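Methods, example record. To illustrate the input and output format used throughout this study, we show the complete record for DUF779 domain-containing protein. The sequence lines were provided to the predictor; the line carrying structure tokens was produced by it.
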Amino acid sequence: MQIMTQRLSVTEKASALIRGLAEKHGDLLFYQAGGCCEGTQPQCFEKGSFYPRMNDALIGRVEGYEFWVDRDLFEYWKHAHFTLDVVDGFGPGGFSLESPLGKTFKIHYRLFSDEELRDLAPVERMD
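The corresponding predicted structure is encoded as:
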């Protein structure tokens, strides 16, 4: 069985923060919106306190927790790999669980190679 190209990865620094947030808050959910007050900064919520919209894309999991992307933003970035990272500072949203810790989740994008595009893992869509 061939391993498919994943759409999402996470830095060790972000993984460590996610583990700490899960210890404090329980199950988590990540969502990256397409703009407005939170910009395109990924947001981390307690699972059940935020619900993806119809046709939003589940592009993978970080530390076992779902990472959803706004349907329109995904259409724009569907040819790119997402790497979840964390930086010091207060992001534009402030609703994300890492904000009180003076941290902000951030995405680094890179375009997939032609070979990776041929073998991309499928996304799940919210019904």
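Annotations derived from this record:
The longest strand covers residues 80-88.
The chain has three helices and eight strands.
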